[in-house]
Amino acid sequence: MGRRGVTGAVRGGALLVVGDVITDVVARYRGPLAPGTDTTAAIRTVPGGAGANVACWAARRGGVEVRLLGRVGADAAAWHERELAACGVRSLLVVDGRTPTGTVICLVDEGAAAERTFLTDSGASLRLGPGDWSDTLLDGVARLHLSGYLLFTEPSRAFVAVALKAARARGVPVSLDPASAGFLTGLGADRFLALVEGVDVLLPSRDEACLLTGASDAADAAARLSRHVPLVVAKQGARGALLARSGAVYARVPAVPATAHDTTGAGDAFTGAFLAALIAGAGPERAAAEGCGAGAQAVERTGGRPPALT
Predict the structure, then answer these.
(1) For residue 6, which of 266, 243, 295, 267 has the smallest C-alpha distance?
(2) Assigned domain for 116 exists
């Protein structure tokens, strides 16, 4: 293995992402919705899932091999494998014979903020369990990244515990994105923080950071979280990103200007580019700047993925 940098990542190794692989149905409309009748919308079916999106944006950044472990139904496994390969991701998909691939309906208001609302059927994605893990998955891996969606069902929580233990034994650093403020409300902040013990980088959105701490200010929230996790990178969309360590914010990275078309996957784009940059040897501030650049590219596209490489 290569030399360790200040971030803990082993340079020259792969990024292993574990998380959800989802079929996104994106409906773009101009509000308000008309209850009980029709609302005109432009509707597309595209590959998605927070974990898969992170992997694709990391591969898009280049300079690092990206692998993805997730669970999908037999109904869409071949399609998702092709789409991941087209983005340069080596897929390690577990095919579930009983449960279909998860589906998310993304309602995107075409107003200036391009805000989105999700209707989520996680399907096979949250059935990933300890039996799907093998320590050999860490062979050649510089960093393990876990989607926070794995913390929202018992089988996948057990998976996280096994993966974290294996990563610690190998000296592989681990990052995690909390994934959903809505699901965090049900899980609870204290339980979440207990489950992520051992993670070295936490990448919450502003809303997630505030929810986990009870703070109303993103900087205060990031600072508080950094007492639990060595490095906190709080994503703030058009406000850029905050980096915090040891109870204090130490860097503010500005956003890259963009015209928002669809904000689906913008946080995933940030995370993917950030992690790839870390593994390639960038420091956290430079990596966050690359993350902001990827986020700006993401909001100008429909869906949560970058353009295919092939």
Answers:
(1) 243
(2) no
Q: How confident is the model at residue 100 (pLDDT cuts 50, 70, 90)?
A: very high
What is the value of pTM for the model shown?
A: 0.91
Among all chains, which residue has been given the structure tokens 């860490």? 138
Domain holding 172, by residue range, is 14-20+50-100+123-299
Examine residue 57 and state whether it is found in any structural domain, yes or no: yes
Q: Considering only CA atoms, which of 220, 226, 171, 223 is closest in space to residue 196?
A: 226
Q: Report the pLDDT averaged over residues 163-182.
A: 94
Query: What tens digit of pLDDT does each residue of 109-154 get?
Result: 887 566 778 898 989 998 999 999 999 999 999 999 999 999 989 9
Tally of structural domains, the chain: 1
CATH no. for residue 92? 3.40.1190.20
Q: What is the DSSP code string of the chain?
A: ---B-TTS-BTT-EEEEE---EEEEEEEE-SPP-TTS---EEEEEEEE-HHHHHHHHHHHH-SS-EEEEEEEETTTHHHHHHHHHHTT-EEEEEEESSSPEEEEEEEEE-STT--EEEEEEEEGGGG--GGG--GGGGTTEEEEEEEGGGGGSHHHHHHHHHHHHHHHHHT--EEEE---HHHHHHH-HHHHHHHTTT-SEE--BHHHHHHHH--SSHHHHHHHHTTTSSEEEEE-GGG-EEEEETTEEEEEEPPPP---S--TTHHHHHHHHHHHHHHTT--HHHHHHHHHHHHHHHHTSSSSSPPP--
Of the listed ranges 9-18, 122-131, 173-182, the one predicted with least confidence: 9-18
- Cα distance between residue 81 and residue 60, in whole Å: 16
